[in-house]
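Researcher: We plan to redesign the surface later, but first we want a full-length starting point. Tokens attached.
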């Protein structure tokens, strides 16, 4: 998605202008991801979409991967902020761990951008980035996952803090594994219309909910 804001100034000199330009790049990256797979998005195409030279984009993000790292953390932070409104009341006597994991899974399934980025984390985003950028991203990412674990502890208090962190880690891993199968290529999706292949279709929210429930049962059983 192009934006008129970059044309308003030739060079971002103030902190405010730099932040505006950074957000324009992230908005363009978001739009591109709705049009093509991450593997097909180049820094050159992103620069063209923003209306800046590749050199100018690199002033803000050293690689394409760094752009999507930033976008992933922003999306994750927004989800964590909005998640409490989508979970069952934590003080309800009837609230069960299964109800929480089901609400968690359904909430995540509605956030296509976040799922897409989580599924690309190990295979794409961590492949072309400097050590320092990787360290910066992972520290911020780890803090966000820690905040998610703290939140889940409020809703499943039978979990230990360690188990809550493990549940969050498994949520990321399961998302990365399930999401690509839930979003098959057009050829595969057409093939799955065959009744004999009906069982190969993956409902992401439903499958993640079931998998996380099994994970919670296991984590609670080992204390």
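Model: Full-length starting sequence:
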């Amino acid at each position: 998605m192009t934006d008129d804001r970059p044309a308003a100034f030739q060079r971002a000199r103030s902190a405010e202008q730099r932040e505006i330009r950074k957000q324009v790049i992230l908005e363009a990256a978001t739009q591109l991801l709705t049009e093509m797979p991450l593997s097909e998005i180049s820094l050159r195409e992103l620069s063209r979409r923003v209306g800046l030279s590749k050199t100018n984009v690199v002033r803000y993000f050293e690689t394409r991967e760094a752009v999507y790292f930033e976008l992933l953390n922003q999306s994750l932070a927004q989800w964590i902020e909005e998640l409490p409104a989508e979970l069952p009341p934590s003080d309800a006597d009837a609230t069960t761990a299964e109800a929480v994991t089901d609400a968690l899974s359904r909430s995540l399934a509605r956030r296509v951008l976040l799922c897409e980025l989580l599924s690309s984390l190990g295979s794409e985003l961590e492949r072309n980035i400097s050590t320092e950028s990787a360290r910066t991203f992972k520290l911020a990412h780890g803090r966000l996952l820690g905040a998610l674990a703290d939140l889940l502890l409020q809703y499943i208090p039978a979990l230990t803090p360690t188990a809550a962190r493990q549940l969050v880690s498994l949520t990321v891993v399961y998302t990365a594994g399930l999401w690509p199968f839930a979003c098959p290529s057009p050829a595969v999706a057409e093939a799955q219309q065959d009744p004999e292949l009906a069982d190969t279709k993956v409902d992401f929210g439903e499958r993640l909910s079931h998998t996380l429930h099994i994970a919670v049962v296991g984590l609670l059983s080992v204390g």
